[in-house]
Amino acid sequence: MVETPEARRASPVVVPIRSLGPSHRSRIATHLLALDSDDRYLRFGFSASDEQIGGYVAGLDFDRDEIFGVYNRKLELIAMAHLAFSQQPEHRSCGEFGVSVLKKVRGRGYGSRLFERAVIHARNEGVDLMFIHALTENRAMLKIARNAGATLERAGSETDAFLRLPPATLDSRVSEMVEEQLAQTDYQLKLQARGFRDFLASVQDVRQGVRDARHKSAG
């Protein structure tokens, strides 16, 4: 069963997840290019080259699909998810989910939280069937699907997961608005903090330059 907004709000772990737009394209590319060959294989179903990842990022349609991300305090995109909406008229109410998390931050529940965020958005957009296509060896992705109550169908080296979503409610719409606002605020605070750290670093450089000049003059 999909975790309800009420249950999620009761969780002590808060992960700010914000929607990403075209201005984040370069950070998305940096995130995906940081994946090693094994992680690229699990994320895309093949060992994507740098050029193929570049093509994927360039082809992201931010008007059609939804991209979610988790930033750390250094504004490094450490986890991201792609919620793709079907463009076929007969499958308009379907969405496909894909996720990637940097190796250094695995085990913190970012993949699950991104999935929950995507589910809420999908429900609010009228999607009633979430679809995940993963390699059977991608145990982390399949665990997320299984824990959400998805039906898994294995076909050799690949597994499809299907999750029926309940219709949108006032609570799901308000929850998404609140989560997005919190994430936007968190991002702006991190942006300001990074700017302040850069300012302090520049001040230290100037001070060091003055000290060096004094030593040379004294010598």
Structure description:
With 219 residues, this protein is α+β, with helices and mostly antiparallel strands. The chain has one domain (5-210): Aminopeptidase (3-Layer(aba) Sandwich), CATH 3.40.630.30. The protein has helices spanning 5-10, 25-33, 37-44, 50-58, 110-124, 139-147, 170-218, and strands at 18-20, 66-71, 77-85, 94-101, 129-135, 151-155, 158-164. Strands 1-2-3-4-5-7-6 form a 7-stranded mixed beta sheet, with helices on both faces. The chain is globular. 25% of the residues are buried.
Q: What does the secondary structure layout of this molecule look like, with pairings?
A:
Elements: H1 5-10, E1 18-20, H2 25-33, H3 37-44, H4 50-58, E2 66-71, E3 77-85, E4 94-101, H5 110-124, E5 129-135, H6 139-147, E6 151-155, E7 158-164, H7 170-218
Parallel strand pairs: 4-5
Antiparallel strand pairs: 1-2, 2-3, 3-4, 5-7, 6-7
